[in-house]
Write a structure and sequence with these properties.
Elements: E1 5-7, E2 18-21, H1 23-32, E3 40-44, E4 49-59, E5 62-72, E6 79-85, H2 91-102, E7 106-110, H3 121-141, E8 149-150, H4 156-164, E9 168-172, E10 178-179, E11 190-195, H5 203-212, E12 215-218, H6 226-238
Helix pairs in contact: 2-3, 2-6, 4-5
Length: 245
Protein backbone atom coordinates (compact mmCIF):
# COMPACT_ATOMS: atom_id res chain seq x y z
CA UNK A 1 0.00 0.00 0.00
CA UNK A 2 1.33 3.44 -0.93
CA UNK A 3 2.30 5.77 1.89
CA UNK A 4 0.16 8.90 2.34
CA UNK A 5 1.65 12.07 0.84
CA UNK A 6 1.60 15.51 2.45
CA UNK A 7 2.86 18.88 1.28
CA UNK A 8 5.49 20.81 3.22
CA UNK A 9 6.36 24.11 1.55
CA UNK A 10 9.89 24.30 2.90
CA UNK A 11 11.23 20.77 3.01
CA UNK A 12 14.84 21.16 4.04
CA UNK A 13 15.01 17.87 5.89
CA UNK A 14 18.04 15.61 5.86
CA UNK A 15 18.23 11.96 6.87
CA UNK A 16 17.89 11.65 10.63
CA UNK A 17 16.53 15.18 11.08
CA UNK A 18 13.03 15.89 12.44
CA UNK A 19 10.68 18.32 10.67
CA UNK A 20 7.31 19.76 11.65
CA UNK A 21 4.22 19.27 9.50
CA UNK A 22 1.93 22.00 10.80
CA UNK A 23 -0.74 24.38 9.58
CA UNK A 24 -3.78 23.11 7.73
CA UNK A 25 -1.77 20.28 6.19
CA UNK A 26 -0.57 19.06 9.58
CA UNK A 27 -4.05 19.29 11.12
CA UNK A 28 -5.49 17.37 8.20
CA UNK A 29 -2.86 14.63 8.66
CA UNK A 30 -3.38 14.36 12.41
CA UNK A 31 -7.11 14.97 12.81
CA UNK A 32 -8.74 13.93 9.54
CA UNK A 33 -6.35 11.21 8.38
CA UNK A 34 -5.55 10.23 11.98
CA UNK A 35 -1.89 9.63 11.25
CA UNK A 36 -0.28 8.44 14.48
CA UNK A 37 3.11 7.84 16.07
CA UNK A 38 5.14 5.17 14.33
CA UNK A 39 3.43 5.52 10.96
CA UNK A 40 5.49 6.31 7.87
CA UNK A 41 4.51 9.09 5.47
CA UNK A 42 5.91 10.93 2.47
CA UNK A 43 6.54 14.67 2.46
CA UNK A 44 7.06 16.69 -0.72
CA UNK A 45 7.72 20.36 -1.36
CA UNK A 46 6.10 20.20 -4.82
CA UNK A 47 9.38 21.30 -6.41
CA UNK A 48 10.89 17.85 -6.90
CA UNK A 49 12.01 16.92 -3.42
CA UNK A 50 10.41 13.92 -1.72
CA UNK A 51 11.19 12.65 1.79
CA UNK A 52 10.02 9.51 3.56
CA UNK A 53 9.81 9.64 7.33
CA UNK A 54 8.32 8.18 10.48
CA UNK A 55 5.98 10.09 12.79
CA UNK A 56 7.60 10.75 16.18
CA UNK A 57 4.75 12.71 17.75
CA UNK A 58 1.22 13.69 16.81
CA UNK A 59 -1.12 16.40 18.11
CA UNK A 60 -4.12 18.28 16.80
CA UNK A 61 -1.76 20.97 15.56
CA UNK A 62 0.24 18.57 13.38
CA UNK A 63 3.04 16.02 13.28
CA UNK A 64 6.74 15.74 14.05
CA UNK A 65 8.40 13.55 11.43
CA UNK A 66 11.90 12.07 11.47
CA UNK A 67 13.29 11.87 7.95
CA UNK A 68 14.49 8.41 6.87
CA UNK A 69 15.35 9.11 3.23
CA UNK A 70 15.32 12.01 0.78
CA UNK A 71 15.28 11.97 -3.00
CA UNK A 72 15.04 14.61 -5.69
CA UNK A 73 13.07 13.77 -8.80
CA UNK A 74 14.54 15.27 -11.98
CA UNK A 75 12.44 17.36 -14.33
CA UNK A 76 11.56 15.38 -17.45
CA UNK A 77 10.62 17.09 -20.71
CA UNK A 78 9.03 18.18 -22.82
CA UNK A 79 7.28 20.68 -20.58
CA UNK A 80 3.53 20.79 -21.24
CA UNK A 81 1.44 23.90 -20.65
CA UNK A 82 -2.33 23.92 -21.10
CA UNK A 83 -4.04 27.24 -21.72
CA UNK A 84 -7.53 26.40 -20.54
CA UNK A 85 -10.48 28.64 -21.36
CA UNK A 86 -12.33 29.02 -18.07
CA UNK A 87 -15.14 26.42 -17.93
CA UNK A 88 -18.34 27.06 -16.06
CA UNK A 89 -19.26 25.61 -12.68
CA UNK A 90 -17.74 22.54 -11.09
CA UNK A 91 -16.30 21.29 -14.36
CA UNK A 92 -13.43 23.74 -13.90
CA UNK A 93 -12.08 21.96 -10.82
CA UNK A 94 -12.45 18.57 -12.51
CA UNK A 95 -10.42 19.83 -15.46
CA UNK A 96 -7.61 21.07 -13.21
CA UNK A 97 -7.67 17.84 -11.21
CA UNK A 98 -7.27 15.52 -14.20
CA UNK A 99 -4.73 17.74 -16.01
CA UNK A 100 -2.64 17.53 -12.85
CA UNK A 101 -3.04 13.77 -12.54
CA UNK A 102 -1.84 13.10 -16.10
CA UNK A 103 1.27 15.23 -15.60
CA UNK A 104 0.72 18.70 -17.11
CA UNK A 105 3.38 21.14 -15.89
CA UNK A 106 1.51 24.44 -16.09
CA UNK A 107 -2.15 25.42 -16.28
CA UNK A 108 -3.07 28.88 -17.56
CA UNK A 109 -6.67 30.06 -16.98
CA UNK A 110 -7.72 31.91 -20.13
CA UNK A 111 -10.46 34.52 -20.22
CA UNK A 112 -11.52 33.84 -23.81
CA UNK A 113 -14.01 36.18 -25.44
CA UNK A 114 -16.64 33.43 -25.59
CA UNK A 115 -16.02 32.00 -22.13
CA UNK A 116 -19.22 31.62 -20.15
CA UNK A 117 -17.27 31.64 -16.93
CA UNK A 118 -15.55 34.97 -16.26
CA UNK A 119 -13.35 35.84 -13.30
CA UNK A 120 -13.74 39.33 -11.94
CA UNK A 121 -12.77 40.92 -8.63
CA UNK A 122 -13.10 38.87 -5.46
CA UNK A 123 -14.91 36.08 -7.29
CA UNK A 124 -11.94 35.68 -9.59
CA UNK A 125 -9.48 35.58 -6.70
CA UNK A 126 -11.50 32.84 -5.00
CA UNK A 127 -11.75 30.84 -8.23
CA UNK A 128 -7.99 31.04 -8.82
CA UNK A 129 -7.31 29.95 -5.24
CA UNK A 130 -9.66 27.01 -5.76
CA UNK A 131 -7.80 25.97 -8.92
CA UNK A 132 -4.47 26.10 -7.09
CA UNK A 133 -5.79 24.10 -4.13
CA UNK A 134 -7.29 21.54 -6.51
CA UNK A 135 -3.99 21.18 -8.35
CA UNK A 136 -2.06 20.71 -5.11
CA UNK A 137 -4.46 18.07 -3.78
CA UNK A 138 -4.49 16.22 -7.10
CA UNK A 139 -0.69 16.29 -7.22
CA UNK A 140 -0.50 14.68 -3.79
CA UNK A 141 -3.09 12.06 -4.72
CA UNK A 142 -1.19 11.18 -7.90
CA UNK A 143 2.13 11.19 -6.01
CA UNK A 144 3.76 13.93 -8.04
CA UNK A 145 6.96 15.46 -6.70
CA UNK A 146 6.66 18.40 -9.09
CA UNK A 147 3.36 20.22 -8.64
CA UNK A 148 1.95 22.07 -11.65
CA UNK A 149 1.98 25.85 -11.69
CA UNK A 150 -1.45 27.49 -11.95
CA UNK A 151 -0.79 30.99 -13.25
CA UNK A 152 -2.71 34.22 -13.05
CA UNK A 153 -5.54 34.48 -15.63
CA UNK A 154 -4.37 35.28 -19.16
CA UNK A 155 -5.94 37.38 -21.88
CA UNK A 156 -5.40 37.15 -25.63
CA UNK A 157 -2.16 39.15 -25.58
CA UNK A 158 -0.75 36.97 -22.78
CA UNK A 159 -1.45 33.78 -24.73
CA UNK A 160 0.20 35.23 -27.85
CA UNK A 161 3.33 35.86 -25.77
CA UNK A 162 3.29 32.28 -24.50
CA UNK A 163 3.08 31.00 -28.09
CA UNK A 164 6.17 32.98 -29.06
CA UNK A 165 8.13 31.45 -26.18
CA UNK A 166 7.17 27.81 -26.94
CA UNK A 167 8.69 25.25 -29.32
CA UNK A 168 5.30 23.83 -30.34
CA UNK A 169 2.00 25.66 -29.82
CA UNK A 170 -1.30 24.05 -30.75
CA UNK A 171 -4.82 25.43 -30.68
CA UNK A 172 -7.62 22.87 -30.76
CA UNK A 173 -10.22 23.59 -33.41
CA UNK A 174 -12.97 21.33 -34.71
CA UNK A 175 -12.57 22.59 -38.30
CA UNK A 176 -8.80 22.18 -38.44
CA UNK A 177 -7.42 20.13 -41.31
CA UNK A 178 -4.63 18.32 -39.46
CA UNK A 179 -5.22 15.80 -36.62
CA UNK A 180 -3.32 16.33 -33.41
CA UNK A 181 -1.94 12.78 -33.50
CA UNK A 182 0.00 13.55 -36.70
CA UNK A 183 2.14 16.31 -35.18
CA UNK A 184 5.87 15.70 -35.00
CA UNK A 185 7.38 16.12 -31.54
CA UNK A 186 10.99 15.76 -32.70
CA UNK A 187 13.33 18.24 -30.99
CA UNK A 188 10.42 19.74 -29.03
CA UNK A 189 11.29 20.79 -25.48
CA UNK A 190 8.11 22.72 -24.70
CA UNK A 191 4.48 22.30 -25.77
CA UNK A 192 1.64 24.80 -25.44
CA UNK A 193 -1.90 23.47 -25.84
CA UNK A 194 -4.71 26.02 -26.20
CA UNK A 195 -8.25 24.87 -25.36
CA UNK A 196 -11.19 27.09 -26.27
CA UNK A 197 -14.42 27.74 -24.32
CA UNK A 198 -17.88 26.24 -24.66
CA UNK A 199 -18.71 28.66 -27.48
CA UNK A 200 -15.52 27.90 -29.37
CA UNK A 201 -12.44 29.98 -30.14
CA UNK A 202 -13.44 33.28 -31.76
CA UNK A 203 -12.16 33.97 -35.32
CA UNK A 204 -9.98 36.88 -34.19
CA UNK A 205 -8.41 34.69 -31.48
CA UNK A 206 -7.67 31.91 -33.97
CA UNK A 207 -6.11 34.42 -36.34
CA UNK A 208 -3.95 35.93 -33.59
CA UNK A 209 -2.76 32.51 -32.46
CA UNK A 210 -1.89 31.40 -35.98
CA UNK A 211 -0.09 34.67 -36.68
CA UNK A 212 2.02 34.08 -33.56
CA UNK A 213 3.00 30.60 -34.78
CA UNK A 214 0.41 28.26 -33.27
CA UNK A 215 -0.82 25.32 -35.31
CA UNK A 216 -4.54 24.55 -35.55
CA UNK A 217 -5.38 20.87 -34.99
CA UNK A 218 -8.40 18.69 -34.35
CA UNK A 219 -8.67 15.78 -31.96
CA UNK A 220 -11.00 13.59 -34.00
CA UNK A 221 -14.48 13.41 -35.53
CA UNK A 222 -16.32 14.30 -32.32
CA UNK A 223 -16.51 17.60 -30.44
CA UNK A 224 -15.45 17.42 -26.78
CA UNK A 225 -16.46 19.73 -23.96
CA UNK A 226 -13.89 22.35 -23.04
CA UNK A 227 -13.52 20.61 -19.66
CA UNK A 228 -12.41 17.34 -21.30
CA UNK A 229 -10.76 18.41 -24.55
CA UNK A 230 -7.54 19.59 -22.90
CA UNK A 231 -7.19 16.38 -20.91
CA UNK A 232 -7.68 14.22 -24.00
CA UNK A 233 -5.30 16.30 -26.12
CA UNK A 234 -2.60 16.43 -23.46
CA UNK A 235 -2.82 12.66 -23.08
CA UNK A 236 -2.41 12.20 -26.84
CA UNK A 237 0.77 14.26 -26.76
CA UNK A 238 2.21 12.85 -23.52
CA UNK A 239 1.75 9.29 -24.78
CA UNK A 240 4.15 10.10 -27.60
CA UNK A 241 6.91 11.38 -25.33
CA UNK A 242 9.37 9.54 -23.07
CA UNK A 243 7.46 10.85 -20.05
CA UNK A 244 4.92 8.05 -20.40
CA UNK A 245 7.28 5.35 -21.61
Amino acid sequence: MSLPVFWLAELEGRVGVSVTLGGSEGRHAAVVRRIGVGERIVLTDGRGRRATGVVESAAKSGLEVRIESVETEPVVGPAVTVVQAIPKGERAELTVEVLTEIGVDRIVPWSASRSIGQWRGERGEKALAKWRTTAREAAKQSRRAHFPEVTEPADLADVVELIAATDLAVVLHEEAEHPLADLSLEDVDSILLIVGPEGGVAPDEIEAFRAAGARSCRLGPTVLRTSTAGVAAAAVLLARTTRWS
